[in-house]
């Protein structure tokens, strides 16, 4: 029976989107995930070290504590991606990452006093 990692590679190879996937802690190290769509996915603690992530889509994905050491992120979309604690060692050039706009931490909302009617 194929492992989860093997199933994911097959899906990526077939162009199937992994949109909203729940894959915390998965080990995909060294794999070819070129063009993979992980938008809105949970990849907390995943090992993507050494992966080919050229043109991958991580828009709104959670990569908290993910290992991206030595990954190729050229032209990857990291719009609103959570990168807290993510290992980025060995990535030589992030200038070619598209839409590198990490999600801002949520601000605590405070209740406003009610407006006085006149």
Structure, briefly:
By secondary structure, the protein is mostly loops.
Description:
By secondary structure, the protein is mostly loops. 8% of the residues lie in helices and 0% in strands. The chain contains one helix and no strands. The protein has one helix at residues 4-13. The protein is globular and about 65 Å long. The model has no long low-confidence stretch (mean pLDDT 85).
Keyword list:
little secondary structure; globular; 118 residues; 0% strand; 1 helix
Q: Let me know the number of strands.
A: 0
Q: Over the alpha carbons, how many angstroms does the gyration radius reach?
A: 17 Å
How large is the count of helical segments?
Answer: 1
Which consecutive residue ranges, at least 5 long each, have pLDDT under 50? none
* Cα shape: globular
One letter per element, helices H and strands E, the order comes to H
| Strand proportion | under 5%
Mean pLDDT across the residues is: 85
Helix coverage percent: under 10%
First-residue to last-residue Cα separation: 72 Å
Instruction: Indicate the structural class.
Output: little secondary structure
The major beta sheet can be summarized as:
none
Topology readout:
Elements: H1 4-13
